[in-house]
Amino acid sequence: MDMNDNRMIRIMVFEPGRAPYTTMLEDSLEHRQELVGGDIECIPLPCETVLCCNASGKLTGLPENRQYGPDILHGTFFLYGDTPEGRGVSLTDEQIAMYQEYFPQPVPAAVSFEVRSAADMKEFMNLMFGKGWDMDTGAGEDMEASR
Predict the structure, then answer these.
(1) Boundaries of each DUF3846 domain copy (predicted)?
(2) Are residues 54 and 76 in the same domain?
(3) Does residue 95 share a domain with residue 144?
(4) Is residue 25 in some structural domain?
């Protein structure tokens, strides 16, 4: 077999914020890198499966995807089958079912917030509950309008 004669293998793709899906991939370094958007890192998993992800996804700020042990995978990653010889092969139906359960949900989008300081209690209450907070009545302009 010629080095450029690559085979198609069935893989399972996990994109940030989306449900996993299966597709066919030409089994070559270039196609693997294209799918994850950069240099690849391959992590052996149980049941003759390999996880392939962007090697620097976290460092380059790719979006959070799935929880993996104590860590979070960033960016698109995919799974493919493995042989004892280390050759990429198509995933079986059993592997697909198993990993759909293992990586079920995308990581929820992180909540970001701004940290601000208040000069006094009145400013603190305005920052927390909206402009016009009345410390005597415990109501702000926004709360008055909703009554």
Answers:
(1) 9-103
(2) yes
(3) no
(4) yes
How many domains are contained in the chain? 2
The per-residue pLDDT string of the chain (147 residues; one tens digit each, 9 = 90 and over) reads 334 456 999 999 999 999 999 999 999 999 999 999 999 999 999 999 999 999 999 999 999 999 888 889 999 999 999 998 888 999 999 999 999 888 877 766 554 456 677 788 777 777 766 666 566 666 555 444 544
- In angstroms, the CA 31 to CA 6 distance is 10
Element (DSSP H or E) covering residue 101: helix 93-102
pTM summary value: 0.69
Residue entry with tokens 């992180």 = 110
Range of 133's domain? 113-147
Which whole-number Å values give the CA distances from 114 to 111, 122, 124, in the listed order? 10, 19, 14
Q: Look at residue 65 and tell me if it is in a domain.
A: yes
**Tokens 């299966």 belong to which residue?**
22
